[in-house]
Design brief:
Blueprint: H1 30-46, H2 51-60, E1 69-75, H3 81-89, E2 105-110, E3 115-121, E4 126-131, H4 134-141, H5 146-153, E5 158-166, H6 169-172, E6 175-179, H7 188-196, E7 203-208, H8 216-225, E8 231-236, H9 245-256, H10 259-266, H11 269-280, E9 284-286, H12 289-297, H13 302-311, H14 313-358, H15 362-379, H16 387-415, H17 425-435, H18 438-464, H19 469-484, E10 496-498, H20 500-507, H21 510-528, H22 538-548, H23 556-567, H24 570-577, H25 582-640, H26 645-675
Parallel strand pairs: 1-6, 1-7, 2-5, 7-8, 8-9
Antiparallel strand pairs: 2-6, 3-4, 3-5, 4-10
Helix pairs in contact: 1-2, 1-14, 1-26, 2-19, 2-22, 3-12, 7-18, 10-11, 12-13, 14-15, 14-19, 14-26, 15-25, 16-18, 16-25, 17-25, 18-19, 18-23, 18-25, 19-21, 19-25, 20-23, 21-22, 21-25
InterPro entries: Dynamin_N, P-loop_NTPase, TRAFAC_Dynamin-like_GTPase
Organism: Streptomyces uncialis
Pfam family, one: Dynamin_N
């Protein structure tokens, strides 16, 4: 196991054991990687490489060293999730079990001081608010405080999410913990809601109690979720309340690793074998979280150390470092190297073209002609070589969205409506409470479908035109999106109004979101400065645009909640109404199914079209950039005929020196890859 100073994202950390060179940098050091990134961006600017080439890399230049990984804590109500989270971060920040938490997702991240921010929807607008003290924390995050939230923000106000920043050694090493609401028996509605929340999660801590066999509903959730994340840990709480905790955990792990368990549940032999094999690699840990918190308050010494070891929290923290943080850091560095190497290839290609333009004869004309032919492949016949792929993907996913809504309503009819007549008052209330979860959950599923289908279309388009300028640009955007999703960003710490433009922005993900940011930057530049289109500093624009969004906008599950709150504001009133009669619950059912089949579908169909248009816009912007480069090359070619032999030789020498510098940087990148063990 690596020491903290060696771990990815830790200040002062290095990778590899090679001795420093003359600059004092190790071959695999973060400092050297940052220097190479900045050098490549500077070279791209100097040699007039398109902004789309260096913009994505520049955006990451000052932030890439701080990657984080997300781990979601999942389990039924009252299994000890919040106490477990408190023990992992080393302080009691979440309300105790005696304070019932409301259905709010809470993300905990490292910060120099403890502070909390919540996102709300007041029935009309989305706002963020910084909480002043722990008492306010209890108001906004517990069921006890729901009435006070209504008094402060209106009867339809709903807390959507919360972010807590606090000093914590484990979080400082690059982990973000998400405490999910109790899933209430993991009934289908809660199961779908929780699964949707895993779309941008690296690991799951699935929490169980000792002495209770894993239920069928828990098994179904485990089967559906274990393949969605890269790391999984089974955590059994209350170790201090039984003498055979490890034996009980081993029995549950044996059940998960038995293919027969999954054959009975899934029916499919292949899926059963695969799921059992996946759980064979899933570790389990017994913990006594309360024990760990008590030990943290005790005087340092042997007793305290013994209690901490018994609590199992140090072992769980070690697993999280090795299985989650370190792995996420490795993937992050691999993607950074790919993006940097791709940018270096583009810069090198531009320098080779420049040399060709300076060379007498057919070579120069051929270089310009090849660029023109490449552009023509994309723009010929109105983009018929690639636009149909996006149109087909959009139409297909729009039909999928409608079908998803129809199938979900059929499921709700058989699950709820068919049984209302036989339900007692308490069951009717529970059914109504579960029903209001469905519209935002369906919306999140629709968003994931849209992102997946359009991303697939982009992959298909780039595969048809490999290695050309536009395809390389799309691949760099995809890498940027993957890297950026695990990098910190700021968020406003006040009662900030989040308008429709914000909601439209957070509805997008991946390449469409980045495309929108670039397009918005260009439009804003044109509006602010009339006349010739000015060059846009994409690095600055990307940072400004991202900072303008709430930090949670990077979490698709949370952004779906924000958008859903705007679309389904009336649901809060239905939830708070606590329908008790058959007629009232049927009215809730009718409202919910209407929101799914109409509001959610209309929003998602429009969103698919917006994301398609955003991708088209970023491709067309790159093509415009290519055409502008062709015009400049034609001008340079015309001027080159007037160069003297001495002037031509000087410019060729300058290009040769730049090529050698790029090759040197690429060689250094290879050394960094070796130093990082990649």
């Amino acid at each position: 196991m690596s020491s903290p100073s060696d771990r990815p994202g830790t200040p002062g950390g290095t990778h590899g054991t090679d001795a420093p060179d003359a600059t004092g940098e190790r071959p695999g050091s973060d400092e050297r990687a940052t220097r190479i990134v900045r050098s490549l961006v500077d070279m791209a600017r100097t040699h007039k490489t398109g902004e789309s080439v260096w913009g994505p890399l520049e955006n990451l230049a000052d932030r890439w060293q701080e990657p984080f990984a997300r781990a979601a804590v999942v389990g039924e109500v009252s299994v000890g999730k919040s106490t477990l989270v408190n023990a992992l971060v080393g302080q009691e920040v979440l309300p105790a079990a005696t304070e019932a938490l409301s259905a709010v997702t809470v993300e905990l991240r490292h910060g120099p001081h403890t502070r909390a921010t919540v996102g709300l929807h007041d029935g009309t607008d989305a706002v963020t608010r910084e909480l002043a003290d722990k008492e306010e924390f209890l108001v906004y995050l517990t069921t006890r405080g729901e009435k006070q939230v209504a008094v402060r923000h209106g009867r339809n106000a709903q807390v959507l999410w919360a972010v807590v920043a606090l000093p914590s050694p484990l979080l400082e090493e690059g982990l973000r913990l998400t405490d999910t609401p109790g899933v209430g028996g993991l009934d289908p509605a809660h199961r779908r809601q929780t699964l949707a929340a895993l779309s941008n999660t690296d690991a799951v801590l699935f929490v169980i109690r000792p002495g209770q066999p894993i239920s069928a509903s828990e098994l179904r959730f485990l089967a559906e979720s274990v393949h969605r994340v890269s790391s999984y840990v089974i955590v059994q709480t209350h170790r201090d309340q039984t003498s055979d905790a490890q034996v009980r955990l081993d029995k549950n792990l044996a059940v998960l690793r038995d293919p027969d368990t999954w054959r009975k549940l899934l029916g499919d032999g292949t899926d059963a074998e695969g799921t059992a094999a996946r759980f064979a690699r899933v570790p389990g840990v017994c913990v006594a979280a309360r024990h760990a918190l008590d030990a943290l308050d005790a005087e340092p010494g042997q007793d305290r150390d013994r209690d901490m070891r018994f609590s199992g929290i140090p072992e769980l923290a070690r697993l999280l470092r090795e299985e989650v943080v370190d792995q996420a850091g490795e993937l992050h560095r691999r993607d950074l190297l790919r993006l940097t190497e791709s940018t270096a290839e583009a810069v090198r290609a531009r320098l080779v073209e420049r040399k060709a333009l300076l060379s007498p004869g057919e070579a120069a004309e051929r270089a310009v002609r090849e660029r023109e032919e490449n552009v023509l492949r994309w723009v010929g016949k109105g983009g018929d070589t690639w636009k149909p792929d996006l149109e087909a993907a959009t139409t297909f996913v729009q039909d999928e969205v409608r079908e998803l809504a129809r199938e979900r309503v059929k499921l709700l009819e058989s699950t709820y409506l068919a049984h209302f007549e036989s339900m007692k008052t308490k069951k009717l209330q529970e059914a109504a409470a579960r029903l209001v979860i469905e519209p935002p959950t369906v919306l999140a599923e629709m968003r994931l479908l849209i992102a997946t289908r359009l991303d697939d279309a982009v992959v298909k388009i780039t595969a048809r035109n490999p290695q050309d300028a536009v395809s390389a640009h799309l691949e760099r955007l995809a890498l940027t999106d993957g890297l950026d999703a695990h990098l910190p960003t700021s968020f406003k710490q006040s009662d900030t109004m989040l308008d429709d433009e914000y909601l439209t922005g957070v509805a997008m993900t991946g390449i469409p979101l980045l495309a929108r940011q670039f397009a918005d930057a260009r439009r804003k530049a044109n509006e602010e400065e009339r006349g010739p289109v000015r060059r846009t500093d994409h690095g600055s624009v990307m940072r400004t645009t991202i900072d303008a969004l709430s930090a949670v906008a990077k979490n698709p599950a949370v952004t779906a909640i924000v958008v859903a709150a705007s679309l389904f504001a009336g649901l809060v009133a239905w939830r708070q109404g606590k329908a008790r009669t058959l007629a009232a619950v049927k009215e809730v059912y009718s409202k919910v199914t209407g929101l799914i089949t109409k509001d959610a579908v209309e929003h998602s169909v429009a969103q698919a079209a917006r994301e398609r248009d955003a991708i088209i816009e970023v491709i067309e912007a790159r093509l415009r950039e290519e055409r502008e480069q062709i015009d400049r090359d034609r001008d340079d070619l015309a001027r080159s005929t007037d160069l003297t032999a001495l002037e031509r030789a000087a410019l060729l020498n300058e290009s040769d020196l730049a090529l050698r510098e790029v090759d040197s940087l690429v060689a250094e990148l290879a050394g960094i890859r070796t130093g990082w063990g990649l």
